[in-house]
Amino acid sequence: MTAATDISNAPNALKILGLQKEYIPGKPILKGINIEINTPGIIAIIGPSGTGKSTLLRCINRLIEPTAGEIIFHQSNLCLAKGRQLRQLRRHVGMVFQEYNLVERLSVIENVLTGRLGYMSAWQAWRRKFSQDDIDMAFQLLEAVGLTEHANKRADSLSGGQRQRVGIARAVMQDPHILLADEPTSSLDPKTAVEIMELLEKFAEEKNIPTLVNIHDVNLARRFAKRMIGMSDGIVVYDGAPEGITDDHLKQIYGGESWLV
Amino acid sequence: MTTTHSHWQRFTLKQKLSRYSVYLILLIALLQSIRTVEVIPEFFYDAPEQMADMFTRMWPIDFAFYSISVHDAMIETLNIATLGTLVTLIFALPLALMNASNVVSSPFSHWIARFFLVSSRSVNSLVWALLFVAIFGPGVIAGVLAIAFRSVGFVGKLLAEAIEEINMGPIEALRATGASWASVLLKGYWPQILPAFFSIVLFRWDINVRESAVLGLVGAGGIGVVLNDAMNLFEWQRVAMALLAIFAVVILAEIVVVQIRKKLI
User: Fold this and answer.
1) Among B255, B176, B254, B154, CA closest to B210
2) Which PROSITE patterns match (chain B) (predicted)?
């Protein structure tokens, strides 16, 4: 493959080439995805449930093993990374989850600090030997997401929106070069959903990183995204500016039209 | 006009017949076993009298005996139970991790873990004690190992189940941060199984206090030795003292466990 030669050298460039994933042999859920990312800001991935959006994001940080294809990040193919190399690449890929995925019995601040686990040995993690810089950064991030006074509360005492803020702070704590957010607003009410999107947008701009957001709310996606990727049936059917997406595209992506008002 | 009725039955005729034949077999087995145990009616009807006789011999309880030998033996019993439970953890934790399908995915590892857990549980602690008394001679070490070997299966199995029930979301999130396997274990799995862990260990300690009280009967140290000697010498007032001490300690252990568990969870 000569693909590696023409990708940008920026640390936050990501190039996905011919990515395929089959959970059951012969039944691919991702049928050859090609996406190139090198500009900061929110990139919304829209599409119906079961079309492989979550699988795509999880293939990028290898929480799910891709069946075929290449993912070029930091000038190396993520699909081939193993052990320590994979963990070091993962450190720079932050991830935000639909169900927040906080460690509920740990305090809020410790949840944020777990974003640094990739930079520590297990021995240090066990003794909670976070560096002073890490602790300062964690408190700054908590302030940025507006949860300073909750720092020492247990994560399971927070509301959904607050938990997602902690989830975002944890991802940013990783010093990511790219952020992945898998349906970050789907479990939240509309007002909180907008606040969470604003927060993601803020960090994307501040840290100058691309943020891939899986989202099924088209209007929310249009409002925040700089670029939209429409997926349907395991392939990319639209990739471009949010203004360019038409009802025809939406019909193709989601099927039917009765829901389009 | 005829209305059509939907027909529904919980079981088909064949299923009904097989169910009733199972009941019939159970009944026959019950009758047959009553015939084979050969209860001797004289002894059976005599039982209340014998019991009353035993209680009169036990009374008054020989409280002076407590400081003579019951106290030290009781402490020994508690030591056996506690040390046995601690030794259990050394084996039970790795086996539980090996047996939990969401930690190790290799069927080979599950098979090995299951083999040890099942063999530990399938042997009663009294039998383990007999084995260890034969190896190490009578005394505390045999008791500690008997308790430990019997508990490994129990603690390991319950712990593995607790691990399998945890929420995998946070595990996924920690793996995504680039954390090493050991860090994920410490920061993702451990906080989630912590309440179950202490609950299981305390529960097993509670059981072990009771079990180690009996181990002395086969010479593995503790209050059981005192109880056995007193019985062999027909010193029923001393037997009563030993039984009372066991009863008191078991109740105390129960209270302590309930209090600690309340604090932890």
Assistant:
1) B254
2) ABC_TM1 (PS50928)
